[in-house]
Amino acid sequence: MKVEAFIFDIGNVLVRFDHGRAVAALSAMGADISDRAGLENLAARYERGEVGRTAFLEGMRSILRHEGDDAAVARAWQEIFEPNAPMWDLVEKLHGEYPLYLLSNTNCLHHDYLLREYAVFGKFADGVFSYRAKLAKPDRAIFDLAIRQFGVDPRHTVYLDDLTPNVEAARGAGLRALRYDPDAHADLTAALRREGVQCV
């Protein structure tokens, strides 16, 4: 069956990330990082759009027992990414041949940073993001929303994600979902060729 479009996850697909970088940066600023559970809960709520940027940063300062300015805290939270070069090469090959879309569990600080810092995101026609949708993977509803918003036929759309529960949920929504391992990029290339994608 012919492939007509691609939907990409972001984290550990288009970019690698390490939350340990944020923890280290916050600690270096003198923040108290002992309440990891509190940080994770706040971050999850922020990603689901339950709190906005201002409330998130206020909550961070409270949990961290730190009075640093918002810009410094935001910078520490944002600077956790690095390019996944093989995937960027793949995007270059696919761009112009297929419409490309994004579907990601993310927050506005990370989203803003990625768009500002990495030109590869300019290759994508549209995106669905958890903090805007107030839905998060692996909830089937966010996949249904993406399919409607992008106007794609799921039977002809390849979805790429690094997490098995998300891949399974995408398949449940009818997408041709593939699990991506950033340490085994050649496996994806081979899988796409089996799907009939010739430009890779």
Q: What are the key terms here?
A:
single chain; 200 residues; alpha/beta; Rossmann fold; DNA polymerase, domain 1; 2 domains; 5-stranded parallel β-sheet; two-stranded antiparallel sheet; 7 strands; 14% strand
Describe what is shown at a glance.
With 200 residues, the chain is an alpha/beta fold.
User: How many domains in all?
Assistant: 2
What is the overall pLDDT average?
Answer: 95
Oligomer class = single chain
CATH architecture of the largest domain: 3-Layer(aba) Sandwich
The tally of helices reads: 10
Question: Tally of extended strands?
Answer: 7
Order of helices and strands: EEHHHHEHEHEHHEHEH
How big a fraction of the residues is strand? 5-15%
Q: Main beta sheet, described?
A: 5 strands, parallel
Distance N to C terminus? 17 Å
Shape category: elongated
Instruction: Report the CATH topology name of the largest domain.
Output: Rossmann fold
Percent of residues in helices comes to: 40-55%
C-alpha-based Rg, rounded: 18 Å
Low-confidence stretches: none
Account of the 3D structure:
There is one protein chain. With 200 residues, the protein is an alpha/beta fold. It has 2 domains: 5-17 and 82-194, Rossmann fold (3-Layer(aba) Sandwich), CATH 3.40.50; 19-78, Orthogonal Bundle (DNA polymerase, domain 1), CATH 1.10.150. Helices cover 48% and strands 14% of the residues. It has 10 helices and 7 strands. It has helices spanning 19-28, 36-47, 53-64, 70-78, 85-94, 108-117, 130-133, 140-150, 164-172, 185-194, and strands at 5-8, 15-17, 81-83, 100-104, 126-129, 157-161, 176-179. A 5-stranded parallel beta sheet has the order 5-4-1-6-7. Strands 2-3 form a two-stranded antiparallel ribbon. Helix 6 (108-117) links the parallel strand 4 (100-104) and strand 5. Helix 1 (19-28) packs antiparallel against helix 4 and helix 2 (36-47) packs antiparallel against helix 3 (53-64). The radius of gyration is 18 Å and the shape is elongated. It starts with a strand and ends in a 6-residue tail after the last helix. The model has no long low-confidence stretch (mean pLDDT 95).
